[in-house]
Amino acid sequence: MANSETIRSINSSRILDLIRIGQPVSRAELARRTGLQRSSVSTIVNELIRKEWITEGERQILPRGRQPLALRLNRQRSRILGINVRPRHTDLVLADFNLGFEVQQRWNTPSQPEAFIAQLIPRVRSLLKNSQSSLLEGVGISLPGRVDAGNHMLIFAPNLGWRQVDLKTPLEAALGVPVHIENAANACALAEVWAGPHAGAQDLVVVTVSEGIGTGMIANGRLVRGSSGAAGEFGHICLAPEGPICRCGGRGCWEVLASNSAALRYYNQPPGAATSPPREPRRLQLRDFNELISRFNSGDARAISALQQMARYLGQGIAMLANCLAPGCVVVVGEMTAAWDTLGPVIEAEAAALARTHALPRIEPSDDHLQPRLRGAVAMVLHRYFRPGLMP
Ligand SMILES: [Zn+2]
User: Fold this and answer.
1) pLDDT given for residue 294 in this prediction
2) What distance in Å separates the CA atoms of residue 77 and residue 96, rounded to the nearest whole number?
3) What separation in Å is there between the alpha carbon of 173 and the centre of ligand 1?
């Protein structure tokens, strides 16, 4: 049974989250929104001010009367480091306590994890030295692979070629703060429901589409990890038993049919090319997905056909998610969302044709300007103070 200390701690997190979402907000407003007594709210608020979690503005005397004191998060409390590792480059951000990005950097991801750690540590130290606040709250790392929920090791990131990697122990030893590691799709799901456009959503799936496909699932208001942390491998469910070979060793997996790499393959080997000589020498083959999007936007028929093929397969996989999890919303994260006006309807039509549910989820592109992977990395550190039950 919850004791009074636990209840106060739950109410404290709740109030902190309400201040974050509604700031500036008054004590009276907090009492109204929580249904708690004014005196209880004041006790918690005073404690949060004393611990420097929040700040209270000056009371202004205005012609119509006294304005209530405005509460806000104390942005300067500490800094959070968010890191998003992708096969080509790694992004790093130093964020304030209100999720505002202070400095951002990008560098080429080294091929070995040992080199990655060796390059990261001096970067972090130099960033903190130049920051307004040198107190580091923690580090969140988003990775393109599954993470073991028990020992926090990266199990395997096929597109990085990293296997059984422990980033947590050496980084915690060097930086002296907690390091949280999570699969990129889970990080994006967290960013959407805690710090993004779908704040408060209870049932939502994020599909990250890049070199591979990942899914992050929020069900009944909590992140779904499964018993080992490996839940959500929808990218390796077989949609075409006779399809192309996947990196996992299987055939016709969703990701080998609907990822960026798949679209490039459709472009480079259009239908019929397999039986006739290749249309272009290998060295002329397109390898850059963003270039494929540019060609799509300029009306290149082959690019349009390749991306529509990718979109149809995305729709097929989303129908499977709709049937399995019945989310209210599916958010697609990835470079292909730049062509959403054309591809979104293709995805929706395919999903609607194949889903066997009376309530098809909304299918939406993520807002890339919000940098969901990086925000998710920062949210990994912060959300536990505000909504501790979200990510068990
Ligand atoms: Zn596979």
Assistant:
1) 96
2) 8
3) 35
